[in-house]
């Protein structure tokens, strides 16, 4: 009998896998591993029923089967769409930046939809715009619930496991990320629940299908915490009424509570105990009192000096901070400078907020609901299709409109197309925020996540007013030249003006405004008082508790986005913010309409689109070899030509002059001398101009484009090559005309039908 020795092997690779033991049996015949169990651990799952109009829809949340090395893992399933989210956090070396280093990555892999990526390498490359926007959406839903003193590197990764093309995975990803954090030992005050809310046929739908959301007048994602507290709002609408939007938010927040209960139940049974949060170095009371004594009076003077603008106020604060540091350094030998700076920031924030409660006035002297001064200009640059400059306080945005053919529409990537049902967009907005807009230096180049998010929000605010059947592609650019808060909403206002200046027949003008919030808490950490701020300044955004952007028309709301910096907002504050923003939006629209209120008509540089028909027999001459004629027209005139149905071609010109030049070139290409009308069945004299293997090229009249007389029509006998008949260039003979081929448009000619039959071949049999 073979001897058996048992070893314990601890596998170690790049990471330390603690206490992973496997047994290896060594016999005289070699090494054998014991048979491993083929069954996976069973996942624990809870199901949540969500109202979907008059019916119910199930949402499954599970854990325990996948990615068990992560701090937390949750899988959320709706229909046949499943999303897995994992979270991992460092337990050492906290960040000293004072900003939570949270990274959220959402990836939608082609394999989840049964597709192969379309790029040359056939693998997923960089994140798409939709992935980046969804990552920001998840981040904004999770970040407010982390403790202020938590500064450890944390990464949340959301992967689509399967997508059915019916249920959207983005909302499922928020819930999966919430479940993973709730199940982990990471300090977090969740969970949160998220739903998508639609409004179709006067009925509110929770988590509508992709087909339903395309018909819906509302597409709103709501993330909420317990006790009906709103954490995040993000969506667009087709000018939905204020009361309908408020009703949808209330229903969505209520449905989120069921998801929160399901995640909480799962975490209670299978969750890890939250790790103890070690308090980092904090500002001592003595240091805080010293900084306050040196700065409080001067801070109050700065924040109540209404003559300050952004730059002068920032300079005054920086000078005061420097003065406090210099004063304290001269009196304290071992001064902790970072703690002094932290104390100065805390005291500045406290005084800034308290002054708003005391005076109901803001640092620039405005009342809480008062707008900054607004000025508008349009038609700034004559060569452009449309341009506008929108100034609100010290926020200045230049918007330009470019119109092009529908072939220039923005093509969507495969997975985004499957998830949204949108193949291409003929309207898109590009937002640019150069560093000089805030008197800074910085990098330029590829667009960042912040710029992409702001541009997407402004685009959603304007898209509902663009006609769906507009025959051009519209590219709207918004460049922020000065920024002191609410540049994305200024982009909506400036973009609306530029569209009107370009003559785009938008249904109505649209405007946007940002709403801020200052709250005061009682001893039980409940909001006891608050102030809503209309038309937010940059410093009010930085030191405040909310940035709620709302865009819309005079009739209703087209887009909204709420970023909350506290662990949730009561519904009352959300409803008050919407009401006040609606009033401010109407006031802004009034000032915009005073400058331009309807699409401008008759601009000389407006693009033109038309359709021409090219006979089949002239198609080759029109296109040229390899499309050379079309390329020549595009280079010389800027007119693009694209085939349509049958013999039709669409022409797009940037202006009337270019169209006239292109038509003249097309006429010169297709021009022929007046050709005689050929009679079907008529007999004509053909002149050979070229000999080919397949036949001879002949003309029936001068300046005619040569036509092929095929070998099969040259003689009653079978002819392999024209040389067998001793045919030469310049030779003339009679042919019969049988019209044109209906597909190719070429002439149908025959010589053999005019020849006498050569006789009937005799059959000989033995």
Characterise this structure.
By secondary structure, this protein is an alpha+beta fold. It folds into five domains: 44-270, Ribosomal Protein S5, domain 2; 285-359, Orthogonal Bundle (Arc Repressor Mutant, subunit A); 374-594, 2-Layer Sandwich (Ribosomal Protein S5, domain 2), CATH 3.30.230.70; 608-670, 2-Layer Sandwich (Ribosomal Protein S8, Chain: A, domain 1); 682-754, Nucleic acid-binding proteins (OB fold (Dihydrolipoamide Acetyltransferase, E2P), Beta Barrel), CATH 2.40.50. Helix content is 29%, strand content 29%. The protein contains 15 helices and 32 strands. An eight-stranded antiparallel sheet has the order 11-10-12-13-24-23-21-22, with helices on both faces. A six-stranded mixed sheet has the order 4-5-6-7-9-8. Strands 14-15-16-20-19 form a five-stranded mixed sheet. Helix 2 (169-183) runs parallel beside helix 4 (242-270), helix 5 (285-303) runs antiparallel to helix 6 and helix 5 packs across helix 7 (337-359). The radius of gyration is 36 Å and the shape is elongated. The relative contact order is 0.07. Mean pLDDT is 86; it is low at 1-38 and 760-766. Belongs to the polyribonucleotide nucleotidyltransferase family. Residues 681-752 form the S1 motif domain.
